Structures are given as structure tokens and as C-alpha cells.
Amino acid sequence: MFIKTNRNGFSHGVSSEITDRCVYEGRRDLIKLLATGVAGAAMTSWASREALAQTAGQTLKPGKLAPLAGGKSNLAGAVTMEKVTDYKDASSYNNFYEFGTDKSDPAKNAHALKTSPWTVEIEGLVKKPGKYGLEDLLKLSAQEERIYRMRCVEGWSMVIPWVGYSLSELIKKVEPLGSAKYVEFVTQLDPKAMRFVDSPVLDWPYVEGLRMDEAMNPLTLLTFGMYGEVLPNQSGAPVRLVVPWKYGFKSGKSIVKIRFTDKQPLTAWNKAAGNEYGFFSNVNPNVDHPRWSQATERRIGEDGLFAKKRKTLMFNGYEAQVGQLYAGMDLKKFF
Ligand code: MTE
After folding, report:
1. Rounded to an integer, what distance in angstroms lies between the CA atom of residue 131 and that of residue 115?
2. Cα gap 148→171, rounded to integer Å
3. Which one of 51, 117, 140, 155 is least enclosed by Cβ atoms within 10 Å?
4. In a domain, 335, yes or no
5. What percent of the chain has pLDDT over 90?
6. What residue ranges line ligand 1, CB within 6 angstroms?
7. How high is the mean pLDDT of the chain?
8. 202 alpha carbon to ligand 1 midpoint, in Å?
9. Which residue has the higher pLDDT, 92 or 71?
10. In this structure, how many other beta carbons lie within 10 angstroms of the beta carbon of residue 1?
11. Exposed, middle or buried by CB within 10 Å (0-12, 13-18, 19+), for 144?
12. Which residues, at least 6 apart from 293, have a Cβ–Cβ distance to it below 8 Å?
């Protein structure tokens, strides 16, 4: 196991279920270090992370597809050798509107969220509906660490080591009916803990959705941790989605319901401003947001006075893995 108590002192009751199957050698070494505590109980220093990343880099060409353990070759390229964002930034610069709209609000306010016990209800067009406890979900498949590039619709990006397993593992277990074409994700609505949900900015609860083939793509990660620890509340504890080729808002946090449906779900942002936030929301430097360009991005942690913006990559750099899902589609229309 390598997921540890997070900085707020919270750990999942069954953290031992989280195994150390890792996506490539360097990371595996890192995980071993974390598991033995050698890399530091309160989280390793980035010096050692970086050293390991460099070691791994000797066998991997930067930016090149990384070999993966376990023969999951369809995930090749899912890892990146780019510098990982500092944990401090990733856990203090967040969007989680239920806790406030300022980037620093979630880290200040999300401690009020009760994340245990937690159940996720599976419903709709599926053979095995029911309430699945967090423990059941954690046990369902081995966890992996995957370092994904994340790109927010607002024009900033981060590189984050997530911990989880492909959502497809869960979907296969619950056996959707042939008529299920979409998956809807409903997230927690707890007005006592989430003080901002009395604001009309969104229609709560926060809802997201994917087409079935997007949900089944192995890149789509059901996520329980980051940086080798359980998710901090502001990052979507205890379970969230991570869809790295789409703008960040598609990655719903603190999920309580997964519904299989034959209709395209009406998502929270789609409802609020459908002309600005489409259902697909694939990262696409060629399709601008109506109010700003999407051609470049600011990498969090690189924002010195002379820091250059980065060019945004098609499908956030995951075109080889997901481009075929949209073959023949007009991405300007289906944005
Ligand atoms: N999930 C919920 N429940 N509520 C939210 O406000 N914000 C989304 C997404 N998931 C949001 C959410 C947006 S806009 C982004 S960019 C990402 O979470 C941010 O995730 P991060 O804080 O891990 O970077």
C-alpha cells in the first residue's frame, strides 16, 4: 500500500487495500520509498521525487511514450516526464465552487466535508445497480499512480500524480445495459458543509457526464488519491473523476452517484452557460472559448515575471489515446 494519511490526519479506513502497482519503473521506486517511509512520512521532498524522475528519464526519452507495467499498452503515453506541480500548489489553487469561487476558498473551507462513511450509488441502465461503499470501490481493482497533465478551461495547467484505477474497471463490474450511451456523475450536495451552495452560480448538485466510450477509455481515472496520499477534501475526497484530455471541469469531485443513461446528461456548466461550456469540452487549442483564446496556457509554478506561456496541446497531449473517439466529428460544433 502506498496511500497514506493525508496532511489533515484523515485516511481511508482501508488504505491497505491500495496497492503499489505502478505505471513505470521510476514511479514504482518512488512508491516503494513512500511505502517504507524512507522518502519522508509527511510526504517526500521534491528533491527525491525529481531524482527519481530523472532516473526514470534515463530509460525513457522525454515526452516519449512510457512503457507500462502489466501489459496495459493502451495506456502508453498516459504518463508524462514533465515536472510535477508542487503539492502545495495543487492543494491550494482549486476550483470546487461548493466551497467558494476563489481559488483559495476550497483549501480553507473543505475540511467541513465529511468523507467517511461514503457511498456511491450506481443506478440507471445497468444490471447491477446498488450502493457501493468506498471500501468496495477501493477493493474493486488495484490502484496505480498516473502522472497526468491537467488543463483548466480558464487557461492554467498542472501536472499531477493521481492514484486510482480506470473507471472502466468499475463499469465492467456493474454491467451496463446495451441501451446505456452516457454516464452521469452526480457529486455531493451537503449544504451544511458546503456553504456556497446557496449561491445561484450553478444549479447544485454539480453534475458531469461522459459518453460511454469516453468513460470506458482507460485514461479515465476513478481517483482516490494524489501524491501518494488520499485526496485532500479540496481536491475531491474521497473519490473523484480525472479525465485528462478534457478541461478540468469535466473531472467531478466528491462523487456520490454514477448513473447510466441513454440521454446526454445535462451537466452543471452546460446548464449554466451552454454556449461557453459544451458537453465534450475536449482540450483544443483550435477552438477558443467565446471570451478568450485556448491556444496557450500558464503552467502553475512557472509564473515568474518572464515565464513564457506554454502552447496548449490537442486533447491536452493525449491525442494518440483518445483522438479516435472523435473521428469525423466537427469539434467546433461539438466543443
Ligand atoms: N467538482 C465539483 N463537485 N465542484 C466543482 O466546482 N470544479 C471543476 C472540477 N470538479 C468542480 C468540480 C473544475 S472547474 C476544475 S478546473 C477541477 O475540478 C479542478 O480540480 P483541481 O482542484 O483538482 O485542480
Report:
1. 16
2. 21
3. 117
4. no
5. 73
6. 94-98, 152, 187, 206, 235, 248-249, 251-254
7. 83
8. 13
9. 92
10. 14
11. buried
12. none
